[in-house]
Amino acid sequence: QVQLVESGGGLVQAGGSLRLSCAASKNISSINVMGWYRHQAPGERRELLAAITGGGKANSADSVKGRFTISRDTIKNTVFLQMDNLEPEDTGVYYCAADWRVDEFVYWGQGTQVTVSS
């Protein structure tokens, strides 16, 4: 079992930055993969933005590469999503997820709203 708590969302102007945090209830180095998703509209699937392995290997989706960076603090058991040069199209609810099994994450946070104004 892993509990995940996201924070850091809010309202920002286009071109601005936000850093999202995801605090986990266990040692994140023991979690095979953690990731950040975005959900933008009802009926749409959540989009995987970035992921980081228990060993610290990180990757991000092509759609946000160069603007979004995933990182972690293993002392605080927290994973971050640094988002720069935000665009109105980045508006959505951002979710942290953990423990990849077969083809999906098992544990999810409650989500944090990000709104980018033009």
Describe this structure in words.
It is a single chain. By secondary structure, this protein is mostly beta strands. Helix content is 0%, strand content 55%. It has strands at 4-7, 10-13, 18-24, 33-39, 47-53, 58-60, 68-73, 78-83, 92-101, 104-108, 112-117. The strands form 2 sheets. Strands 2, 4, 5, 6, 9, 10 and 11 form a 7-stranded mixed sheet that branches. A 4-stranded antiparallel sheet has the order 1-3-8-7, with no helix packed on it. Strand 9 (92-101) and strand 10 (104-108) form a beta hairpin. The chain is globular, with a radius of gyration of 13 Å.
- Amount of beta strand: over 45%
The share of residues in helices is under 10%
- Low-confidence residue ranges: none
H/I helix tally = 0
- The helix/strand class is mainly beta
Tertiary shape? globular
The chain-level mean pLDDT equals 96
Q: What radius of gyration results from the CA coordinates?
A: 13 Å
Q: How many runs of DSSP E, i.e. beta strands? A: 11
Head-to-tail CA distance between termini: 40 Å
SSE ordering: EEEEEEEEEEE
Largest sheet: 7 strands, mixed
In brief:
This protein is mainly beta. 0% of the residues lie in helices and 55% in strands.
List the helices and strands and how they pair.
Elements: E1 4-7, E2 10-13, E3 18-24, E4 33-39, E5 47-53, E6 58-60, E7 68-73, E8 78-83, E9 92-101, E10 104-108, E11 112-117
Parallel strand pairs: 2-11
Antiparallel strand pairs: 1-3, 3-8, 4-5, 4-9, 5-6, 7-8, 9-10, 9-11
Task: Fill in the keyword field for this structure.
118 residues; seven-stranded mixed beta sheet; mainly beta; globular
